[in-house]
Write a structure and sequence with these properties.
The protein is of the alpha/beta class and 358 residues long. The protein folds into two domains: 122 residues, Rossmann fold (3-Layer(aba) Sandwich); 202 residues, Dihydrodipicolinate Reductase, domain 2, CATH 3.30.360. 37% of the residues lie in helices and 24% in strands. The protein contains twelve helices and 15 strands. Helix 1 crosses helix 10 and helix 4 packs parallel to helix 5. The longest helix has 20 residues. It is globular, with a radius of gyration of 20 Å.
Amino acid sequence: MDDRASVAIVGSGWWATANHLPALVKRADIQVEAICDINEAKAQAAADFFKVNATYTDLGSMLRERQLDAAVVATNHAAHYAAARQCLEAGLHVFIEKPMTLLASEARHLLRLAEDRGKQIVMGYNHTYRPCTVRARELIQSGELGAIQYLDAQFSRPVSSLLAGIDNVTIGNLHRPGDVYGDPARSGGGHGQLQLTHMAGMLFYTTETRIRRVQARMAHHGLAVDLVVACAVEFENGALGTVGGTGHVSGGGQSTRLTIFCEKGWLDIDDTAGTLHVEHEDGAKEFLDSASDADEAEQRYFYGPIHNFADVITGVAENHCSGTIGWRAVELLDAAYRSAKRAGSAVTRDELYEDEQS
């Protein structure tokens, strides 16, 4: 009898073939049972490359015909909700690549489905696996630094080509992203949905807070999607903050930083450098360099989410970055996009669910 967990891949594009499949097929406790993609040729190419026996172009057919324990949802952003919903309704644990969904009401619905069926949602936020971020979360959640009063979150990467629909990635050796990130119908937006969502995941993983209201402006600079995002945020506990970034970093490099000021000290996560700096109220200082074992740290960062999912569904680990984190990140981005459409006027959290209630 095969006691491996049976997993399906929904969406066989760039990240599924560059990250999820390479990690899962190497595990002795996981059986990749099937690959589903509306593009039959892509599904078959991935199946051939990773030696997976079954392919489907219809998710419903796969869910009816295969005995599955879990599914990895790695479709384009706009299709996350429908695919994850079907998998949860079929009684599967679900891994969802970021962003969880495009709308807060959709994310909340997925959480309720998972709870009703006793299933886990694991999010693909790899930045939450860096030791510097894990330690920052421990400090904030312990109450050692007191209540959060202000934070500044910035995520800027040189991805303007991708946001222009130009495929220039170097990661992976099978499928590529193509022009999907420059298409708002499939991606749901630009820098916000592709990159700033990573920072939102880090922020809510570390703080476990929620937004109260958001004011945002976005600039496209000639693209079909947003290239620059700037948000002023009021959080649930009354803390204030700024969240933003750009997809155009001229000359290369990147800047990814989360600084949190609390009643009894403050901390600064430099995700690019992999470091954490902490200042305590009594003058004590703490410094953590995640890059001290660079190879091991990079493996944990790159493959952490998908391996955690495998560990969760096989019962050997707790959920590191749950659907609740994904939902709170979606609340921030949903509010930001709505605010930007209204020239920066404030959007409250309650407004995100008005259609659902009507």
